[in-house]
Design goal:
- The structure is a single chain.
- The protein has 349 residues and is α/β, with parallel strands linked by helices.
- The protein folds into two domains: 267 residues, L-amino peptidase D-ALA esterase/amidase; 61 residues, Ubiquitin-like (UB roll) (Roll).
- 36% of the residues lie in helices and 21% in strands.
- The strands form two sheets. Strands 2, 3, 4, 5, 6, 7, 8 and 9 form an eight-stranded mixed sheet that branches.
- α3 runs parallel beside α4.
- The longest helix is centred in the last third of the chain and has 21 residues.
Length: 349
């Protein structure tokens, strides 16, 4: 177990946002449309100049926001012809009933008209306050404004436009094999394993079939976004989307999928860790490593008990080497434990 410095340098995040401009065929924009107070950016638009294969991983909460339900249905219908993602912050459009779903459909139509693409090729994301309906007049103004500002270098504004209680944007990008993969994310509170109050949009200019893309994304999320904890709560809107437009001209299949999986996983881990580093009230960034467990699920169960323990968190916050709290959490985790063989290393960096 290691406790480390809290934030990545902003220079590293800015560099990643700059690298995203080199993912061919994609453009982005972020604008203010009045969903958040003041003049804060609150609507993002991401678009591809050609059809994309798409994949998604969503919250496991049984109370799902309207855009989650919409995107799941859209990807099930046709995951091979996506063109854009429109995302708003400030209002979650969750627990809003039939009107909320109609607002997603209206948002998608607005974006499709502004981009000149079919509505079936647009996905939607929302984050913010639950139970509040979207202001569709403001959404319409925002979508029109964002469509007019789309640019390959528009990622910094898009990353900030999806923030809620975040203090900084999150971005990561990797290059390999003639293609790039990267993306942006948001999240700072209601963070728990199996997704959290977070959104992430990932893009690649590699050419990948939708089934391979979905498998790669699910595997990457399993070891990144699904392994972070801040407060133990799970939201209604959590979504990770991945679009692949093939603009690099490099087809990724068969053995080449391994390199793509590795790069995608690195991107997701970096974004997930940035969410934890930017957690509401956080003063420590902690990594838990479990060895000797009979399988991955058991290791994860033990780690989850430690990560969500209020007593462990207070010890870490206070810099108190009360290591017995860690072993006690493992002991109640439900995983079979040989107590006389337990060992613990704690490293404060």
């Amino acid at each position: 177990m290691a406790a480390r410095a809290i934030h990545r340098p902003m220079a590293a995040i800015d560099a990643a946002l700059g690298e995203l401009a080199q993912v061919r065929g994609f453009s982005a924009a972020g604008v203010h449309c009045g969903l958040k107070a003041g003049d804060a950016l609150d609507l993002a638009l991401l678009a591809s100049d050609r059809p994309c294969a798409a994949a998604g991983v969503f919250t496991t909460n049984r109370v799902k926001a309207a855009p989650v339900v919409y995107d799941q249905a859209a990807l099930a219908q046709d995951a091979g012809n996506m063109r854009a993602v429109v995302a708003n912050a400030g209002i979650a459009n969750a627990c809003t009933g039939a009107a909320g779903y109609a607002h997603v459909e209206q948002t998608v139509r607005l974006a499709a008209e502004a981009l000149g693409v079919a509505p079936a090729g647009v996905l939607a994301l929302s984050t913010g306050v639950i139970g509040v309906p979207l202001d569709m007049d403001r959404m319409a103004q925002g979508v029109t404004a964002a469509a007019g500002r789309l640019h390959a270098a528009g990622w910094p504004d898009a990353a900030r436009a999806i923030m809620t209680t975040d203090t900084r944007p999150k971005a990561s990008c990797r290059a390999a094999g003639g293609w790039r993969v990267g993306g942006v994310a948001k999240g700072a509170g209601m963070i728990a394993p199996d997704m959290a109050t977070m959104l992430a949009v990932l893009v690649t200019d590699a050419q990948i079939a939708p089934p391979d893309l979905q498998r790669a994304l699910a595997a990457a999320v399993a070891v990144s976004f699904n392994r972070i904890v801040v407060d133990g709560d799970m939201s209604t809107n959590d979504t990770v989307l991945l679009l692949a437009n093939g603009a690099s001209g490099v087809a990724v299949a068969g053995d080449a999928l391994g390199a793509f999986q590795a790069a995608l996983t690195e991107v997701c881990v970096a974004l997930a860790q940035d969410i934890v580093r930017d957690a509401e009230g956080a003063t420590r960034f902690v990594t838990l490593r479990v060895t000797g467990a009979p399988d991955v699920d058991s290791a994860r169960q033990a780690a989850h008990a430690v990560a969500t323990s209020p007593l462990v968190k207070t010890a870490l916050y206070g810099g108190d080497p009360n290591w017995g709290r860690v072993l006690a959490a493992v002991g109640r985790s439900g995983v079979p434990v040989e107590a006389d063989r337990l060992s613990l290393d704690v490293d404060f960096v």
